[in-house]
Every structure is written in structure tokens, then in C-alpha cells.
Amino acid sequence: MPLPRSKTLATWLALAGGALGLHRFYLYGARDLLAWLHPLPTLAGLLGVLRVRELGQDDRLAWVLLPLLGLMLSVGLITAIVYGLTPDARWAARHGAGQPPRATGWGPVLGVMLALLLAGIVVMSTIAFAFQKFFEWQGGSLPT
User: Fold this and answer.
1) For residue 112, what are the contacts with CB-CB under 8 A and spacing of at least 6?
2) Closest CA to 15 of 101, 85, 103, 87
3) Which H/E stretch holds residue 11?
4) Dihedral sign, CA of 48, 69, 28, 97?
5) Which of 62-66, 110-114, 126-130 has the highest mean pLDDT?
6) CB 19 within 8 A of CB 38
7) What average pLDDT does this structure show over 120-139?
8) Residue 143 reports pLDDT greater than 60
9) d(CA 84, CA 105)
10) Where in the chain are the domains?
């Protein structure tokens, strides 16, 4: 029989390591295919960061890889928000291993608040970077 899983811990794992799939490994174990699909695009995005640091912003491969990091960070943060806002009864039914629902307290709420703040920063940064590179590629300047 599976062990009950903590909503608070799942929320914070998604917040801190959601881009690597840590929350999925915690909830579903090492056999979860979706958990194994998280690290590859995240590491590719980190490779883009390294290429920008070493080769500068004109490296085309870097500006293709960087949005992958933003996307995976966004997925982890959105997952943290969903986990934190899941009602306790639904969480217990899905991940409680037959245990009655229990009140989770402030842990998931604080995780959701931090995830909302970080998600706004990550999403806007990713969009700004992508549009900047798109317009540079199109003609070298932004339309007026």
C-alpha cells in the first residue's frame, strides 16, 4: 500500500525543484515517465545559460535553449500553485493512501504565494527574452 503524501511537501518540492520533476518523483516514484521528462529540457535550458555567459547574446543556439529553461521553471511553479490550491479532501482522495483528510495549515498557502511571485517574474522574463530575440532576428530593431 502506498504511503500518504504531504500536500505541503509536494507544493514546496514543485516550487524548489519542479523543473527537475522532484515533485513527481515524490508523489509517483521513480517509475513515473513524466518525472523523467522534466530534467532534459531543464538541463538544455541551463546549457543555453552557459552558452550566453561564454559566447554572448548573439549565440543562436543559446536563444533557442533559454526559453526551455523558462518554460520548465514555469511548469514547476504552476504545478506548485495547483498542488497548494487543491482542497484537502481531494488531496487525501488522490494522494492520501486511504487516510482521512487533514488540514494542511499555512505551508501550502505560503508556497502558493511565493510560486505566484516567481511565476510572474519567470513568465515575463521568458516572454521578453523571446520577443527581443525574435525582433532582432527579423530586422535588427523593434517596430515603432
Assistant:
1) 11, 80, 81, 84, 85
2) 85
3) helix 7-17
4) positive
5) 110-114
6) yes
7) 81
8) no
9) 11
10) 7-138
CB 10 within 8 Å of CB 60: no
CB contact set of 71 (below 8 Å; sequence gap of 6+): 41, 45, 126
DSSP 45-74: HHHHHHHHHHH-TT-HHHHHHHHHHHHHHH
Residues 6+ away with beta carbon under 8 Å from 39:
20, 21
CB 50 within 8 A of CB 57: no
- Give the residue carrying C-alpha cell 525574435: 134
pLDDT on residue 75: 93
Contact 96, 4 (CB under 8 A): yes
> φ, ψ for residue 10 (rounded to 5)?
-65, -40
Q: What is the DSSP letter of 140?
A: S
**pTM as predicted:** 0.81
